[in-house]
Structure formats: C-alpha cells, structure tokens
Amino acid sequence: MQNLVNQLNAEISRSLLPHYPKHVDVVEKGHLLYIQGMVRSIRRQGKDVLADVQDVVPVQVKLNSESIYDSECTCPTPFLCKHQMAVFFQLYGKKQSVHRWIYRWKTMTFPLKQKEDKRMNKGILKEQELTDEQKKVLSVYEYGVELVDRMFQKTKNGDVPYSSYYLYTQISNSINMKQYHHWELTPLFHIVANIHFLYRIIEQNQQQRLWESEQLVHTIVLQLGQAIDKLPKPAPFTFDLVYEKLAEDLRELVFLEQPFSNEILTVYWMIWNDVLMRNILRNRELAFAEQTVKKCNPDSLWHAVHSFQWFFHGDTKKAIEVLEPYAVEHFRIVFLYLDIFHQQKNWKGFDVVKPFFLNHYKAYFETLTYRKKQHFVDQLFHYFFDYVEKKNEQSFLETMLYHLLPFSAKPLSTFFLDRKEYRRLIDLYMFSGLEVEAIGQETLKEIQRHEPECLLPLYHQAVNSAIVEKNRASYKRAVRYLKKIRTIYRKLKEEEHWNRYFSAILDDTKRLRAFREECRKGKLIDE
Predict the structure, then answer these.
(1) Are residues 440 and 467 in the same domain?
(2) Which of 86, 175, 237, 370 is deepest in the core (most CB within 10 A)?
C-alpha cells in the first residue's frame, strides 16, 4: 500500500499547482473533508484505491496510482476533485504528516520562464486577481489597521484623552465584539490589530510615557502569542496576501528599534517562526535583511533579524556567524535557538552554538541587572543540562556555573546532587556560606544515606558559627548539629573521633555555662 501512496503522491504533486486558485480550492476542501473524518471504507483494487466519502451527497471515489487522469468520482466535478483529495490525505496521513505535505506543496517553486510563475514566486498578487475569499480575508487586515488608526486619530483630535490603557481597552472591546462567520479569521484579526497597535504605542513612547506602556506592551505580546496558537494549521491559502502584509508591518516595527527592543524582537520571532513560514517570504526577508544590516549600527535590531532569517533557512552556523561582531549586543537571541534545539533534542544544534556561547557569555552576563543575572543562569542550566548529559561533557556546564557564582549556587548544587557528587556539593555549600537550615532536609538525608562522612565538615562549621553567636537560641542549634555529628561518627564506627572532637569543644567552651546547660538538656553530657 505504501508504494501505491508514493505513486499517488508523485502524480498529485505534479498535477496540482499551488498558485492556481481552482487547485488551491480542491486541496483546501479535500483537507477539510479529511480532518472531519468523512472518508470511509478504503480498499485496494489492483492499481486503484476505492473509498466512500460522506459529503452532502455521498460519493464513491476511485484513485488510479498510474495516472491521476484515470481516477474517478461519482460527483460531477471534472479532473481531480475534493473527494479524491480527501481519500489521498486519508492514505497519506497513516504514515506521514498531511500538514507537512500541504506546507511543502504550497512552497513549491517553478521555472521563472512562465509569466504566472514569476508572479507567484515574487509573491505579488494584484487586486483584480483576488478571489472573493481572498478579498474577505484582506478586509480583515484592512479593518484591523483602520480600527487602530481611528482610535489614535481620536486622541490626536482631542476627542478622547491620550491613555495607552484606555486606547487598548477600546480596541480590545472592538476586537472581541467583531465576530467572523469563519472562526479562523478571528485570531488573524487579533494579530493584525495587536501588531499595528504595538507599532503605534512604541512610536508614541519614543517621545513620552514609557513607564505607562511597559506592562501594556507585555500584555500585547501575550495576546499575540495566544492568537498565533489559535490560527488554523496549515493556514488557508487565502491568508497568503495578509501574511505578506504582516511581513511588511514587522519590518516597520523593527525599524523603530527603541524602546521595548526585546519585545519587538520577541514579536518578530514569534510571527516569523510560527506564521510566516513560506519559503518565498523568508527568501525575500533574508535578502532585505542582508542589505539593511550594511547600513546599521552594531546595536541595531536588524543584526538579530538577519541572524533569525539564516536560522529559519536552516543554517545555524551562518546565523551564529553573522552575530559574532555584535555578540554582546544580541547574545540574548541565542536562547531562542537553544529553546528550539532543546525541544527537538537536536544536540548537533547545540554543538554549533556552544563555541559562541563560551566565548561571550561572561561579557554579556556583566551587562545584566541583578535580577536578570539570576534569570540568565536559570536559562543556561535549563537548556544545557540535558545536552551535557547526552554528550558526556559535564565539565563544560560545571565550568560555566562556577564562573557565575554566587548566582549559580542553586543550579550547581542540583548538578552535583544529580551526579551524586556529594563531597563537591558540600564544598559548594561551605564556599557559598550556605547555612544548614537553608539546605533541604531531603538533600541532607540523601547525603547521610550514601556518604555521611561528607556532612561532617558542614556540621563542624555550623557548630562553630552557632557557638560564636553566644545566645541561647544559637546554643540550641549547636546542640542539634552536635547530635547529628555524633550519629554520623557512630554510623561510621568512629566513636573515638567523636569523643576527641566533643572533648575539644567542651574545653573551648568551658566558660559558656549556657552552652553547657544546653548540652546537658540534649543529653550530650551527664554532669
């Protein structure tokens, strides 16, 4: 059956053109029937596949693997129909991704000698060439832009006071009230309106009210993420023109540069990574970015965008290479690549990023605020932990974490604990000045079960620190630690060591009557 499916795939791929509206319609409607589960009773008959498709009027389908033109359907549609496509998708989807088939088919390119292929490959669609469905989707884009512009114009005219929160509330209400008959248009509308509002609010904040809009910008980024998740996958072909316009809008957003540069890059990454996936768009954007960076300052966002586009083209090495001259300014975007590789368990991708990371992480770390330094360390540990385990390169991660102390004390302790390197873990605790109370009881119990002798230096230090405080509460703590030390020595059958150690403690504290009293209460001494 798989050979037959491969033959059908080759036949259909050759016969259907992704820039021809009638063929697009057949693929879309066939996909809809497939995901609705309307294909029934598939069976093979020689070189043919027979099936029933439950439509408004049920039909019978025959697909011929040698010639798609010899295929048949009881519906009146000539050539390949939606029912035949649904049957093909049902067969193809048993072993492979239908989503990926549609994506590859949409991004097919053709020789540029044909006029319509030139138009398609350049991504140019003229108004008179649009179908009614494409015009409907385009109107969603136009309404989203017009809605935002109208609200900002009201503030300019003095009809309403300028307040970013007020404007966004009004626009959000309008978005939520706008209900489209086709559900997939709603998240598209949200994306268009939010991107355009983000542009206007950042443009406005280049002069004023930065503090007022900071939280709002974060909210917009969150709303965009939610809308992206709700987009249909694969996207309808009717979305292509709007996606071209979104690509242009994102360029304008990047050109703003400041303020909220992190959020601008986040939005650009989200849209290009999850929405604008057509090769035509990405090829065009890469070419544009390559020309733009030649005229930009080192801290320009376009250097990050340039790197993004190489990454989207599957060339991580080039994506890192173009960042090298601007490593400190744009180091943070490497975590986006690591996130993708971590999800995919693509350790070869980590290999490409690793030299860049090692060369520049310390310089970048020094530019961060206290809170961001801690976040950086947490990210580093999260992404590299699995990598070093798979590659058996634990020293690589350990070296970085040591350089980032004291911010890395917690992940470094997790690293040692996971590897059961208890002695090094205790050394870390003592070096960091971590008190016993700050160490989890489960951790202490685990060490005591496996290597109790490792705990002795920690408890010795804790006893000395508690006695030096010279108050009743600290003496009680010291007695608790002493009892733990005694238990460990007994477990190790080294009671002579305990006797010598405790005698020395009593000798050093003979003037501290309160301490000796606590020792008696704790039954460490009998006198």
Answers:
(1) yes
(2) 86
Q: Are residues 140 and 270 in the same domain?
A: yes
Position 248 in a domain: yes
**Radius of gyration for the alpha carbons in the chain, expressed in angstroms and rounded:** 33
Question: What letter represents residue 139's amino acid?
Answer: S
> Which pair of tokens denotes residue 487?
């238990």
Residue that has been written with the tokens 């376009």 in this structure = 302
- 168 in Cβ contact with 216 (< 8 Å): yes
Residue type, 342: H
Q: Which amino acid is at 156?
A: K
Residue 415 is assigned to a structural domain of this protein: no
Q: Alpha-carbon distance 38 to 32, whole Å?
A: 9
Residue 302 lies in a domain: no
- Measured CA to CA, the distance from residue 61 to residue 54 in angstroms comes to 11
Same domain, 139 and 265: yes
- Of 148-162, 260-274, 305-319, 506-520, the range with the lowest mean pLDDT is 148-162
Count how many domains the chain has. Answer: 3
What is the H or E stretch that residue 48 is in? Answer: strand 48-53
Helix (H) or strand (E) holding 379: helix 370-391
Same domain, 147 and 245: yes
Q: Is the pLDDT of residue 340 over 80?
A: yes
193 is written with which tokens? 């309106």
Out of 6-10, 121-125, 139-143, 324-328, pick the least confident. Answer: 121-125
Q: Are residues 266 and 155 in the same domain?
A: yes
Q: Is residue 394 a part of any domain in this protein?
A: no
The H or E element containing residue 377 is helix 370-391
Torsion, Cα of 230, 234, 238, 239 (10° steps): 50
Per-residue model confidence (pLDDT) at position 66: 78
Structural domain range at position 484: 420-521
Of how many residues is the chain composed? 527
Mean pLDDT of the chain: 87
Shortest CA distance to 165 belongs to which of 222, 225, 214?
A: 214
Helix axes 370-391, 347-365, angle to 10 degrees: 150
Residues 92 and 131 in one domain: no
pLDDT band at 168 (very low <50, low <70, confident <90, very high): confident
Q: Is the domain of 18 the same as that of 58?
A: yes
Distance CA 224, CA 220 (A): 6
Encode pLDDT of 236-278 as tens digits: 888 888 999 999 999 999 998 888 999 999 999 999 999 999 8
Given pLDDT bands bounded at 50, 70 and 90, which one contains residue 117? very low
What CA–CA distance (Å, rounded) separates 49 from 43?
6
Residue 322 pLDDT > 60: yes
The amino acid at 180 = Y
